[in-house]
Amino acid sequence: MDFAAQIAMARYERIGEILGRCMERVEKPESFSDMIDKVVLDRYLGIPVFLTLMWAVFQFAFSVSAPFSDAVDVFFSACSDWAKNTITDPQLASLIGDGIFGGLGFVLVFLPPIAFVFMALAVLEDTGYLSRAAFVMDRAMTKVGLQGKSFIPMLLGFGCNVPAIMATRTIENEIDRKITIMVNPLMSCSARLPVYILFAGVFFEKYAGAVITSMYLLGILLAALMATLFRKLVFGGKPSPLLLEMPPYTVPTLRGVFTSAWVRTRVFLKKAATVLFIGAIAIWFLSTHPWQATEGGSVVENSYAAVIGHAVEPLIRPLGLDWTAGIALFAGFMAKEIVVGTLGIVYGVGEENVASAIVSHFTPASALAMMVITLIYLPCLATIGILRQELGGWKWTGFVVAYELVLAYMVAGIVFLGCKLVGVA
Amino acid sequence: MKLSEVEPGSVVVIADVHGNPEVRKKLLDMGLIKGAEVKVVRNAPLKDPMEIEVKGYNLSIRKVEAEKVLVVER
Amino acid sequence: MIRTALAGNPNVGKSVIFNALTGAKQKIGNWPGVTVEKKEGICNYKGTEIQVTDLPGIYSLTASSIDEKIARDYILDEKPDVVVDIVDASNIERNLYLTMQLMEMEANLVIALNKMDLAESKGYRIDVRKLSNEIGLPVVPMVAIRNEGVEELKQTVVHAANSPKKPAIRYSDEVEEAIGEMEKKVTKERILPEYPSRFVAIKLLEGDKTILEKAGKRTEV
């Protein structure tokens, strides 16, 4: 026997001696925990119980938190309107109203889902179910280069990638955690849905539902593919062993749950929020300047953002997209929910009539390309801020941005050319 | 016999632990040492990993790792 | 000011104890260069300030994972005045495994024996005073979730900082013989003299990669 095994045994031997002199063990009947696990981890019931709880977590994180986010939104919109109505200098009014209050609203709207996600996670962790969830899902997740504990962050990604990426803090293993973070933006968050609804509705009428669903599936497929690739190529291939303790169930305390949520939310405020706020101001500047040429931010075609839209046109033309799509995608970098609105502004028709306007700028094939790009191309600004916070710097964040851009371009190209090949214009 | 092959409900005794040095060290640290009693509690709904009881606590371990743990009947 | 570090396995209630000690006055950041969370805070016991650093939850100190490496380096290099080893009383056997290793490192230890209520319901009857005598270290029984034992822990930490204890831990003769021989070599060749020689000897025998590397830079073992 080698020394590693010898000393491990020696330590446990010593522990045995110590405990032998100061501890008595009384046989106890089956514990409460064991009884719960008989149901919760049952061969047949285990997965339904798991899915039900996951559904509840998702609803709690995003539906229950929504009114709070709406309130933040309403509050800052009101502040913004107030600023624009009171300040006489139009440029200053725009800076304070749209730039500063708009930027603050944009950042703070993330607080409710982050706080709710961490409350839910604290409850799962403190009760002891978190490691059971990993136990139930591990087999499925290892097939795609992840592990059991990656499931919850990936699921939350369908709501919003920002709290989802923060939720990877429950994954102890550094490499598993990094991979989970890096593929998380591929989970199609709720902000991307309006883009799918618009384009699928206009170009694929009857099949809109199928097209939208396939976008979600494409995201999952790509996440699985990239996770496997990253594990093999970037992190040396070996999955880390899962030796997960299954602690007895306990009742969480309110204080513990709130402390955990408060502490994490504060981290977001202190770290990511500054980056996001500066980013929001920068985007406000690019889309409203030069001030004269854009007539005070109302003619987007003349803004720096449009310059960028035009600059990327040669790149996206092979995908059947023009500069208007370029601007919309640039705006979507700030937040993917404003892609549709930006198209409305660019076509000068407003958000309600954007459906009729896109018919002349897109074809079914290029509409698909646009949806695929929206799914993959860039993590939104908020996600980039959180990536930097959680990946510990710009190096890995840059890597994520780069791979997503390349991947978006490749997949959109394949989809576009594939459509041409099968005769869809 | 490998630990991965033990039926839920059975109690066995560890005879030896193999595997690459790092994984082996981890298993040893978690109390999977020669002579330790292990009870296989259940398999996960998807058959892998398995839950075992060792040194008075419950541990989930993947089949790949459990294959490296040789056990004998008590 | 007293510098303490909280060490312990995952799931022992370490964050509950950290919160109970420091309240909301805590700084969360990352350990330098990695994405592992670092929590620090300050508490007070009768005018003495205690700085508390929460180490990552670990099962062992082999430095095979980043968490273990962080905890080990912190204890070895930053040399906190007191290391509070949080032990889950309801899972005492496996938890003491880390305690053994912390003792090998010759850290100035205080054992916080948490979850005494769960241990009781599991049928474990632990004689805390006997345990303390057997192991040669102060042991504070706690139910941190109900705030029981927190003041006693602070008091014990302050006391331990003023009168450090580093009891030796002895294993079976066979193992001790191997350690003794290696330790002689370690002392003679002055391998990593900044660390306890017995600890270095054990790690070299275990084939610990980081210690081998560190030692290898200066001498062939």
Shape of chain C: globular
What summary fits the major beta sheet of chain B? 5 strands, antiparallel
The number of distinct helices of chain C, counting runs of at least 4 residues, comes to: 9
**How much helical structure, as a percent, in the residues of chain C?**
40-55%
- What is the class of the largest domain in chain C in the CATH system? Alpha Beta
Instruction: Compute the CA-based radius of gyration of chain C.
Output: 18 Å
The description of the largest β-sheet of chain C is: 7 strands, mixed
Unreliable stretches of chain B: none
What is the straight-line distance between the termini of chain C? 40 Å
Overall pLDDT score of chain B: 93
CATH topology of chain B: SH3 type barrels
Strand content of chain B: 35-45%
SSE ordering of chain C: EHEEEHEHEHEHEHHHH
Q: Say which CATH homologous superfamily of the largest domain in chain C is assigned.
A: P-loop containing nucleotide triphosphate hydrolases
Q: Which of globular, elongated, flat, extended, rod-shaped describes the shape of chain B?
A: globular
Task: Explain the overall architecture.
The complex is a heterotrimer of chains A (425), B (74) and C (221). Chain A has 425 residues and is mainly alpha-helical. Chain A is built from 21 helices and two strands. In chain A, α5 packs antiparallel against α14 (272-288), α11 (193-203) crosses α12 (208-234) and α14 packs antiparallel against α20. Chain A is globular and about 85 Å long. The termini of chain A are far apart. Chain B is of the alpha+beta class and 74 residues long. Chain B has a single domain (3-73), classed as Roll (SH3 type barrels), CATH 2.30.30.90. Chain B has helices at 21-29, 63-66; strands at residues 11-17, 37-43, 50-54, 57-61, 69-73. The model of chain B has no long low-confidence stretch (mean pLDDT 93). Chain C has two domains: 2-162, Rossmann fold (3-Layer(aba) Sandwich), CATH 3.40.50.300; 173-216, no CATH class. Helices cover 43% and strands 21% of the residues of chain C. Chain C contains nine helices and eight strands. Chain C has helices spanning 14-22, 66-78, 92-104, 116-121, 128-135, 150-162, 173-188, 197-206, 209-216; strands at residues 2-8, 26-30, 37-45, 48-54, 82-88, 109-114, 124-126, 139-141. In chain C, α7 packs across α8. The model of chain C has no long low-confidence stretch (mean pLDDT 91). β1 (23-25) of chain A pairs antiparallel with β7 of chain C.
